[in-house]
Amino acid sequence: MNAPEVMPTRSQIEALRKTLSEGGQRLREAYEHNAQPGQLLRGRAKLVDGVLAELWQRCALPDTLTLVAVGGYGRGELYPCSDVDILILLPDDEPDAALRSKIERYIGFLWDLGLDIGHSVRSVAECMSEAAQDVTIQTTLLESRSITGSLPLYREFLRQLYIEFNPESFYHAKCAEQEQRYNRFNQTPYALEPNCKESPGGLRDLQVIIWLSLSAGLGTRWSNLVKHDLITAEGARELRSAERFMQHVRIRLHHLAKRREDRLIFDLQEALARAFKLEASKAKRASEVMMQRYYRVAKKITQLNLLILQNIGTRYAPLALTGTRPIDENFQASGELLDIVDEKVFERNPGAILQAYLLMQEHSELKDMSARTLRALWRGRKLIDAKFRKAPENHRNFVAIIQHKRGQTHALRRMNQFETLGSYIPAFGRIVGQMQHDLFHVYTVDQHILQVVRNVRRFALEEHAHEYPLLTRLMAEFERPWVLYLAALFHDIAKGRGGDHSKLGMADAQRFCREHGLGKEDVALVVWLVEQHLTMSQVAQKQDLTDPDVIRNFAALARTERRLVALYLLTHADIRGTSPKVWNGWKGKLLEDLFMASRQLLRGDTPQQALGLDERQQQIRERLRFYGLMPEVEKALWADLDTVYFLRHDIEEVAWHTRMLYHRPHGEEPIVKARPSPVEKGLQVMVYTRDQKDLFVRLCAFFSRLGYSILDAKIHTTTKGYALDSFVVLDPGQDTDYRDVIGLIEHELTERLRHQAPIDAPTPGRVSRQLKHFPLTPSVSLQPDERGQRFILSIVAADRPGLLYTIARTLAEHGVEVHTAKIVTLGERVEDTFLVACSALENSGKTVQLESELMERLRV
Predict the structure, then answer these.
(1) Residue 178: what are its φ and ψ, rounded to 5°?
(2) CA R_g for the chain
């Protein structure tokens, strides 16, 4: 007869929970008293060790098994709300049903204790197999330690692990893994809500150093790196300081959020600043002071990570094996790395600093710079003074970097990382790490600028031609495309100084270009682009592109096709460089429409020809014939549609409307049709019905009630009094298959319009975290148009669910009729423009009353 299983009682589990809770509270109190992060991290690991070992004994797990801590827990560092990663190591024999049951119960009890457990159950052979296939698993096993159970089994596990371990392969795999991680965070530590663990410059960068040092047999302490000449004593002190700061950040994030939260989210930045005892200055909030400190430390970590990984890498490809070959009197090639001939090169010849970046572009066989070259560049930033900035040789080298056929993006990023760029262009140095709380930029100013340079540069690369074929073709035909890189570099350089940054940046750009010997035409183009870099997006997104005067005025501003092409390329790159959320196909289509019409005008067409009404109608007819419609079936419907309609809607959209309506242009029943958007993800909805009171409000309310955001709205009334309205709607944050909801929308909206059901106000949605902490004061402007017939209503406000409904309802209450609506969403910010009409608006008092009421309702 088998002996009964011994399992912990409920009271014993509660006692262990209490041990964890009280122990964690004591550790937190001690941390808040003495601010020793290492003490807290090691203390929590030791606390959890004891509880896991005691529960192991109470569950009577056999002595042939081993309980192993792995990952960060194996390293002996456990953050307040981190996962507890464990490995239950088995002998090679397959566990029987009874043992599997015991293990399952043990894991279940760990969850009952309130621990967030990450567990695996494997034999030694299985561990080796998994480690061979996945470098992440291999890494977690390297940091393992035994908690309780069979020590001989654990030693055999370690023996097998190191027998099969290949340090050189591990080095290359971890470097590749780091590069992939950097790509996930857009190669920058300067996001507005960085991840202190995973982002470039976070704790993971420090852990990578330790992993590679451990795998190379160099030890796991920063002092070991000094001993093996991988870093200086000063570098080790900087590493310890940076690690301590990041540990404080992560610990305090966990404490403040009361959960595992590794992002410096807006909700916590102010509280985090208080925890660091930081105070606001006259120009900056406490949170901004905190974030600038974070960015400085993150930048230092990326520099040291790069230096140390380079040094470790030379152990696998030592100089004696790779050899050296001279490049010039200052530099040599050491294998595939650019190396200085000695440590004093930059002191003897400061101009060689810029030459180093240029040589990396000129020698495609070089993959990177040696660690001592990077160290010397970092020290050499202090040699870049006024005399350096005036030297003609340095002017030539910098322009050569910009003009070179390859490597501009990498060169400028590396120059920024090692502060060469900010030292050489002081105006750039002032915007390094500067936050932007405008609700649509997700990068600091310097990182946004480098993203824009990168975007412009991609237009010139054949491998990216499939992304934006038109822009690639325009770039290929553009003479001296490098002037666009300079314009991108200077377009936002004056942010944060107060005043119009476009105007202030012009002076910086002009001075720089003249000092660097650019021709008169190129100087004028760069300066004009910096001044006008916001204009094209504003015209495309806020003005009526079907109005010949709009096209005529914009073309007159550009004056030449070269300037028009340059502004189009820069504008496209600029919008895409703000945030992944800001760019979409609709914005691209608006920019392209404005560009095409303006180019035709500059080539000699009339505004009407540039807008291409006759050509468009012919293309629509051809499309209708393609769908099998007989010639002239469109006549009855088109007779009711004016020129503005054909210009405002694209060819595919008019063809779709005509196919749906040609056989019933004067029916009494409302017609609602929907389809997946052909331009961008989302749903395109067409509504055709006899015009009725508050129709726009009714439609906005309907979409808001469904939780949809309205990306685009075109309001049109035919000559026979029918409303033909088009919307593009999106289900925010959802990966929706819009085909599944087409039938529902068509049926429900038709019924509501047929019976003129009461307007249901949508439920107010939640305001985003960013808006809570960086509120946007709305602005409302109501001005007569140039003809004095209608009014242009411009609204800038914080985006939120139901916003367009709120605007539409307010206008309806004042008897204001909406003729067109241009909806522009920039991250958390909207910039909407409406063409409206109302005789009461001739009275300035009524205008002020409407503006005031809109302002009040738009406040978050």
Answers:
(1) -65, -40
(2) 32
**β-strands 709-714, 722-730 pairing:** antiparallel
Domain 169-316: what homologous superfamily?
A: Nucleotidyltransferases  domain 2 (1.20.120.330)
Token pair in block for residue 41: 């991290």
Task: Locate the domains of the chain by residue range.
Answer: 10-165, 169-316, 427-606, 612-665, 666-858
pLDDT digits 0-9 by tens, 610-668: 666 778 888 889 999 988 889 999 999 999 988 878 877 888 999 999 999 998 888 88
Cα 82 to Cα 577: distance, rounded to the nearest angstrom: 34
**Contact assessment for residue 428 and residue 422, using Cβ atoms and an 8 Å cutoff:** yes
Positive or negative, the CA dihedral 335, 338, 344, 348 is positive
Q: Is the pLDDT of residue 716 over 90?
A: no
CA 192 vs CA 61, 415, 491: distances in Å? 48, 21, 20
Residues 6+ apart with CB under 8 A from 493: 425, 427, 428, 431, 449, 501, 505, 508, 509
Alpha-carbon span 665 to 644, nearest angstrom: 18
Q: Which residue is associated with the tokens 């007159």?
A: 556
Question: Within a 10 A sphere around the Cβ of 849, how many other Cβ atoms?
Answer: 13
Rounded Cα gap, residues 354 and 305, in angstroms: 22
Cα separation of 186 and 463, whole Å?
19
pLDDT value at residue 765:
59
- Angle of helix 286-316 versus helix 408-417 axis, rounded to 10: 110
Query: Per CATH, the architecture of 10-165 is what?
Result: 2-Layer Sandwich (3.30)
Fill in the DSSP letter of residue 654: H
pLDDT digits (tens, 9 = 90+) for 136-179: 999 999 989 999 999 999 999 999 999 989 999 999 999 989 99
Q: Which structure tokens are listed for 647? A: 């210009």
Beta bridge partners, 234, equal: none
| Beta pairing partners, 331 | 340
What pLDDT is attached to residue 769? Answer: 62
> Residues with Cβ < 8 Å from 416, sequence gap 6 or more?
422, 428, 432, 446, 450
- What tokens does 583 get? 């760019």
Distance of CA 69 to the CA centre of its chain: 35
Residue-wise burial string across 760-774, b where 16 or more C-beta atoms lie within 10 A, e elsewhere? eebeeeeebebbebb
Half-sphere exposure of 102 (CA within 13 A, CB side): 19
Domain 666-858 sits in CATH 3.30.70.260: yes
The two tokens of residue 224 are 């070991």
Q: Element (H or E) spanning 81, and its range?
A: none
- What is the model's pTM? 0.71
Q: What is the mean pLDDT of residues 310-325?
A: 73
Cβ atoms of 52 and 67 within 8 Å: the answer is yes
* Cα–Cα distance for residue pair 625/103, rounded to 1 Å: 70
Count the neighbouring beta carbons within 10 Å of the beta carbon of residue 417: 20
DSSP sequence for 314-336: HHHS-HHHH-EEE-SSSEEEETT
Closest-CA residue to 111 (of 250, 177, 17, 196): 17
